[in-house]
Records
---
Amino acid sequence: MKQEYTITVHTENHIGLLNRIAIIFSRRKINVQSMNTSPSEIPGIHRFTIVINESEEVVVKLIRQIEKQVEVLKARYNTNDEIIWQELALYKVSTDMIADKISVERLLREYGARAVVIRRDFVIFEVSGHREETERLVKFFEPHGLIEFVRTARVAITKSSQGFHQTLKEFEEKEPGTDRVVENKYLDKNEEVFSM
């Protein structure tokens, strides 16, 4: 049975990785509802947050494919019940329509909206919340002169108290890395190694 899943991927930050991850979805004809990339709590490690509507069996296969990418440290998936998530939306509305027909105070209270820009010709409101909440405000603004609307991709954090940083720490304790650099002993011997 299909349902909404949020896939979280912790990676090293390398050029071309976003494209390779996107290809994994497009080859399987899976529609990505939203994708967000951002730095994580660990310096040098980035976090992809990908939302899809699929069966768990398909999601498990996707995770395996994503983890085959060299730069990927860990990929996991969660249902909406296992995460805390938000999206940010901006609404540009005609100032005249706002002044004439809408009680701004009521709007701010009822929808948790915040005016971020107020100009003579338009006002921009910001709301964060779940998709249903941001879409509700679109429906509210449409008859009142909605000029423009944009919504960000999902940002999500798991409800479990252990984050990726702790998982990485435990891995390092089991398999400690070495700080020593091993030099290639053939580095200065080009003619000896490559002569015919």
---
Amino acid sequence: MNNDYTDLRNGYLETIENGVNGVRRFRSGLSFGSGSRLENLERLRKEIETADAIVIGAGTGLSTAAGFIYSGERFEQWFFDFIQSYRIPDMYSGGFYPYPSKEIFWAYWARYIYVNRYLDPPKLVYEKLLSLVRDKEYFVITTNVDHCFQKAGFGKSHLFYTQGDYGLFQSKNPANRKTYENESWVMQAMEAQGFVRNASGQFELPLDGRIRMEIPSALIPKCLDDGSDMTMNLRSDDSFVEDEGWHRASDAYAHFLDQYEGQHVLFLEIGVGANTPVIIKYPFWKMTFDNPQAVYACLNYNEACCPRQIEAQSICLDGDSGEIIRQLCDTIKTIRRDEE
């Protein structure tokens, strides 16, 4: 495979640099927006319908709203034995625990990948979001790695997963810049732990509730090309593999932004927290500031805000993103029904 991507745009770095440079302009503080909730819902509905293009920037808050919660009942259902043995407080923390063997480490990760990549989220939030933009020119940039956009039906050519994918492995050999699909391995590793498939083909606990917290040594994933140990294709340091698919999506994102530069663009930010604002939030602020025709919308729980310099171009909706999306869908259905 040709790993020379010099002919492709790096939309990831371009927008980060743009956002970092632009955020220096926003020194007048933040605003929580203006207008009532109903007014802002109606304004967002109109923007979705009238925008020339919609750029969706999604963070973990969107998947949380869809039911992908890493603690509580869902965590206890799938990892009760790890909780008892290792006192792991939540699913995410368990991914970093120093397990005593690779067999246990990969048993944990097989479950982690299965429930967060190969199961659908409990709520149809992504599907409802797609219904809002399906007939629009849209592009999605996301820091999420759970594949929920594609599972909901968003077109692959409209998506840029910047931080990796739970469904991909990469070799620990730094010279190998490929990624490898892991679905077949995950299913084997789940069966090896004693999980059984139900009538729907999904794994569940056996009737006796007995499962193993390890996989056979022969199932420890090894790279088929170089024999090296495998690791997750998740961005944590500079060893993260940006493969051909990643670079083509990054290039597509850059060209989409260029195509609609200066036009009526809705930058729709959903569930983006403060951990990685340079990837989505800061660039969205800067592109809105630079384009008088653009509108920035922020859907977030307790963090819906915008710089004061773009307050007039912004829509801030505080609350559960899934509920906001549901309300938008219901309003549109009511309007269309009344028009018939």
---
Amino acid sequence: MFPVAFLRERTSNVYRSQGGATFSKTICDCFGGTMKRDSLFRIPNYPAWFGADTFLLAGSAVHWIVMSVMAYELSGSVTMAGWFATIRGIMSSTTQVLGGTFIDRHDHRTLILVQAGSCAIIWLTMGILFIAGDLTFALFVSLCLLSSSIFGFLGGTTNAALIRVVGPKRYAEAESVNQGRDAAVNTAGSPLGAVLFGMSHAFPFFASAVFDVMAFVSAAFLRLPLNEDERDEAASSEPASFVRDMIDGWRWVFSSKVIVSGVAIMGVVQFGFFAAHQSVNLTLVEQGVEPLLISLANVGTAVGTIVGSFISARICNNMPVGKGIVAILMGIAVSYVPMALIGTYPSILFSTCLASLPMPLFSALVNGFVFSKTPVSKQGRTRAAVMTAIMLFGSLSGAVAGELLPRIGFSGFVFVLVALSLAGAMFAALNPYLRTIPAASEWENVEL
């Protein structure tokens, strides 16, 4: 699922006793949280990390919906606007492959600051050029491709740094929170961007610049210690060539049967989720459903994800991963049955909401285990490899939905997704590398 995109110095006693506590309270208050004894926000550096990651995501969400419209208005061509979106995706995916290695070789805090600062400058420049009447299609494309390159190359930095912030034991819980946060920000970002765009085409880009500046400020408070083993490993890797580091990281990823099995099951879930989303949108459009109702179906999915994240945060640490994966895939299969049998708008809304509920738990279990067990020095490369593979599965969903819907109809296609989820559950149940993964409390005793 829009896999931000977003530390290595010792934490000073001053930060821990004064600055860290003040900043924690400020960030927590901004997001409506309360400082509970077991809250993630009581972990030093987590509020700063959460602020940086959230504001970077908000900066992308607020202008995302208007990019294609701007491309069309500046070029006057639907074809050019379509190719613009495709090229941006290719650029982001390509740079992500290289970025994982770069992230592992450099200071995370510095990279977050570079990403936030450079993106703020890009969006501020674009807004000023538009107001001045000097924003041509060529300039627009150039600035957008530069932004996509930075996002792909450095966007995984915050995710790579998360393990340093919360530690392995609370990584699954943090992943659950991220899932709900992502859904909330993306759901709010699109309408906010549309409203700002209606006021002035430059406003969404100015808003993105403001969010990126806020991410920069949050990242400035971020401090992470290195233990001696990690410090020695980081120092020893510096002289190595970039290409050798990249090959070493990818070889390590694909030598792990657990990671390969995890990528396969994540690919099944990602494909099914996006294929269901595509088929619902295409079917509702074909049925002449009002655009507002179509958007409500998408909002329903986001609401299900947000509710699911709260549930996941409370149970993910105590659920065995292997059994959880099987149960979740079977639950997704059952969730699709009402809209497959009935096919009406209410049944579609019900099924999509229900199917989205376990998605945060699935992500917390699988991503939580994989990345909590991945060495800190390989976080960037592992995430780049995993996300690139999953994106390949997700990118096929639109084409498959477009080809099969006219041939077997909406109900037939949804039953294909039901069968796919059941097959995934069987794969997880029969796969010894997935089936035997225990709950988070026992991860430290299990090898990746």
---
Amino acid sequence: MAQFFIGVERKARRCYGFDEIALVPGRITINPEEVDTSWKLGKKTYNVPILAAAMDGVVDVKFAIAMGKMGGIAVLNLEGVQTRYENPEEVLDKISHASPEEATRLVQAIYEEPIKEKLISKRIEEIKRAKVTAVVSAIPQRAERFGALAQEAGADAFIVQSTVTTVKHVAKSYKVLDFYKFCKAMKVPVIIGNCVTYEVAYELMDTGCGGLLIGIGPGAACTTRGVLGIGVPQVTATIDCAAARNAYFKKKKRYVPIITDGGMSTGGDICKAFACGADAVMVGSAFARSKEAPGRGFHWGMATPHSNLPRGTRIRVGVTGSLEEILYGPAKVDDGSQNLMGALQTSMGNVGAKSIKEMHKTDIIIAPSIQTEGKVFQVAQRVGMGK
């Protein structure tokens, strides 16, 4: 693996993000309507390989039901306003009306309200009553308790999510979650996140988890990279973790899907993530723009309410269309943020991939001019790719 000197006796390798690569069309093309976009989580198959992120501005009970009825998964955050407040609508209104200067302080205050365990069960049961998939998330410190409650309430999968997750976490002030025991105890698939390197991904797969979230700091509302200085661009992170998945499958004969989480604002980014090896992707800001999203045109990161060191911010994304338009079209905007499934199917057809696993074999090129070549009028007029 090529490394370059960045100073005396210090080397670093070059990593890549979505804007720096492009996909090469295939020698064979396929009718987009005839490609298979499905993926598996545990024993269940889903036709939509795009998950809505566990953020309060994106997913509430109504949104999770709407997404489920369209064949996808929306993840409910068990540590957000939905489980802290009996009536979260009033709180969401306050957040949406706060000035940029007030937003972070207000969100911090709102999230000081204790989580109510009865609301965890209530929210999951509300989703399940609509006969759709219920997937929920919590941080490692609360995973054992919340995992048991979620499972009892009928959740179909449980996500353990933190900024950086490793098997070998060291702490004296609180009990460290044993992922091996937790995954074994849970009767539903456990998805663990987030990670970005080959070694950590391989070790996490060995816990018995049902999937991995890939990505540290690329989200539209996340400020981890600015606050902590850590992260790996999503193209390199996805490729490295996909290599770990393939090596793990070759050795252990168990396939653990990887889910690229964050950094994708357009259909093109999503297509590139699959070409890099993702089995599914998790998206926040694209869905935060839907009429069904609870954020009222605003979006904020999961670590935004941290009382001492916020690693997210509230951003305005606006409301551009319905969830159906964002997922399936017809697109009413020209920037690639709508009809995400149509974009994926068309891209798969053009590279000659009949399935997501065939999409993994797509030829990728380094193309730093891919965003700007021939786009001078779009840039000047701030339309299409020039926005």
